[in-house]
Amino acid sequence: MKRGDFSVSVTKDHLVFSSAHFITFAGHRCEGLHGHNYRARVTVEGALDEEVWFVFDFVVIKKIMKRLCDEIDHKVLLALENPKLQVAECGDSVTVAYEGKPRYVFPKADCALLPVPNTTVEMLAELLAGRFRAELDAMGARGLTAIEMEIEENFGQSAVYRVEVRT
Ligand SMILES: [Zn+2]
Fold first, then answer.
1. How far apart are CA 64 and CA 135, in angstroms?
2. Of residues 36, 43, 35, the one with CA closest to residue 65
């Protein structure tokens, strides 16, 4: 009998990042700066490794995810690809303008400049899935078929991004 499919999932109390952000909406509405205690959950789908009988080592997944969360923990998350926002580095500061009007100045060390069009949980999930995948590629992971990343910004309020991979 053919075996079914397996996946492994990790979400932990330490896979969180407490970060500030704001998003822009359709038209001319822009949120004020506020924060979330975001939490990440990653699921890896793939073939069972029949030497060890698991899909992927939990320890490795946790280590990668912890690093990815730490990179953006206690930062102001700023979207670099939002046409309504002008984000510029200026010495030790980052200035942010909305539709050409100056809005914020942050210390550069407190900012995470992200290649996303808006810091929605959808875009954060896609970004972290891509970074997670790059880490797996770099370590030569084999046999994986999909990565799913869920980012929760409030209890019961999250977005999921899933991408098929071939490793
Ligand atoms: Zn928010």
1. 7
2. 43
The catalytic site residues sit at 30, 74, 153
Structure tokens at 87: 């984000």
* CA atoms lying within 13 Å on the CB side of residue 49: 12
Paired residues of 88 in beta bridges:
95
Give 125 Cα–ligand 1 centroid separation in angstroms.
14
Ligand 1 centroid–CA 53 distance in Å is 40
Quote the ligand 1 centre to 152 CA distance (angstroms): 11
| Ligand 1 center to 74 CA (angstroms) | 14
Q: What is the CA radius of gyration of the chain?
A: 18
Per-residue pLDDT of the chain (167 residues; tens, 9 = 90+): 788 899 999 999 999 999 999 999 999 999 999 999 999 999 999 999 989 999 999 999 999 999 999 999 999 999 999 999 999 999 999 999 999 999 999 999 999 999 999 999 999 999 999 999 999 999 999 999 999 999 999 999 999 999 999 87
CA dihedral 66, 68, 70, 71 (to 10 degrees): 160
Which residues, in sequence order, are bridge partners of residue 97? 86, 102
Distance (Å) from CA 58 to ligand 1 centroid: 30
Amino acid symbol at 27: G
